């Protein structure tokens, strides 16, 4: 089997945000479209990034209207601004939503058309302008991934866009920036990173290289998500979670994901609910379903999640792991059911149809039918 | 601390060599300078690469005169050929020597001057033409690294050239290609990969990302170098050694190396001796010297090398590790002393002076004096 692995150049460390300007200079950029969101702006990080661009003599234009679960309109508006202002590079500063919009804008300004044209795998044919991504959450992994997820409101669908071209030129990961996240966002995004690591590790497209990153991400997150959620100022825990999120990103970018994300995208396209929380609710149910597809890998996951050494049986270890994950989610106050987060009268049949078509479902380790997905949604519901 | 990490796009797997042409097409190249060596040509791999270029409609010119420990003349000749034939991209097919010459040629044709101008760290300022590297040994890691090592015969010196620009665009790693290596080359290059993993792991510039790759490389090599040396046709062992070598390359490319390589470069600049064997002779002596700088890391190395669980003392584990490494080298028939490989009347004082100036010495975990280096050379001598 021939496998491929791609990663951006990575700049990692406290205050790395101050290297944005010189990094763009190195890429030959002169006028940067900065894509960000109001929360990140309020925390002051957008301004820090912009000031760094100014200090290095670079011009910029700010598009700061990204929302959670961003839709096609944000891509259209961001791309229009890029063209009006004659930008030549894109900076994303924010959570997964801002980075995904930044990437989608980069697609449109170089490849034309509408973002819907690029849904699916490998649809991008012209090179993108230089891109730098600065994550302000430890969760999405978008700063290193070949993914962008954008909602098509007409079809009520989260579109998964996958392409090598979407791996940014440079990922600048600054753990210091994570100190302004509240505990709910820390918990939800951290559980998202865990779901990336686990789905990538059991993916049918996993490779020795993605395994290394998935397992290390899971180890770091298992040890650090509780303390990181507990304290704004525990910088050591933030550093570990930033590294965990990035390595989980390297893993899933190259091994793709599975049913958790396929189902989560199906929910997120129809309902305005936070991606990380949805994933963390779905994850244990999907793990139970997938367990027989890869008992040895789920046993390893169990070992890492702290499933005590009381058994040598792989299936048992796998089940301990799922239990340990539920404990972790409970300890940091994550919701347990879809109902609890506000899903009302969901049409599980339609959502299951959408989930089955998602690009992430292809790499799920266990064969999945429409009935399976509906049953999993029901289990996660209440 | 802010750390940086760079990796090329990686295509890994049996028969990946057949993806060279389409990869160059993707990079927009049309006429490829193929840099290779007579041994690789004799084994048929150069022709396979060239045929693949032809099949994809790409023109090529062949420079196949690379030798072990290549000098500046090969860079000059390769660059002249590139210009004469109006090439626009460079392919390296071979061991570390061929890949290092290919990279050095890529520097000269895009940045001008002589290769001596680029000795040291970060001296390359213009972008290189597209480069793809296909290793035919599991050892150098040059296919993923930001290093090129070229001998300056005037100064009798191995020049270490380090630059982000030297990370190839694409590394194509085909374990199948390793089946034509003889057991001596398999052993020597495998021990070189081990020295990369160990030096990167204890380097003062090690980071969590380089650690992951260094440890995984060491695990793979510890388990697979014996069987890979024992059998031409053990493809499973070749796959693991190819992955070990590449991951060791990712580790040392970003964490740099230490005294083993600084000293080995000092020998290689003056004497025509194989790099891998020299490293494997020096490695246990340097480990003994470095042990007090990082007992915990050497203890981990000891655990991986199979240092039995009889002790919990870190220094003891470290010493067990060094012993286990000597056993491994002995089992695969590696030489034990510099005298044995043909070093005659060496001027250790001059060599120690050269070693102290090498870029690799900067990241050695223990402070090193001229006297230390001379003493280490003497220990390794007989």
UniProtKB/TrEMBL annotation, chains A, B:
- Could you tell me which Gene3D superfamilies the record lists for this protein? 3.40.50.1970, Dehydroquinate synthase-like - alpha domain
Top-level division of the source organism's lineage: Bacteria
Residue ranges of every copy of the Alcohol dehydrogenase iron-type/glycerol dehydrogenase GldA domain listed in the record? 8-175
What's an example of a GO molecular-function annotation for this chain?
alcohol dehydrogenase (NAD+) activity
- In Pfam terms, one family for this protein is ADH_Fe_C
Q: Which UniProt keywords apply?
A: Oxidoreductase
Q: Where is the Fe-containing alcohol dehydrogenase-like C-terminal domain?
A: 186-381
Q: Which protein family is named in the record?
A: Belongs to the iron-containing alcohol dehydrogenase family.
| Protein's UniProt name | 1,3-propanediol dehydrogenase
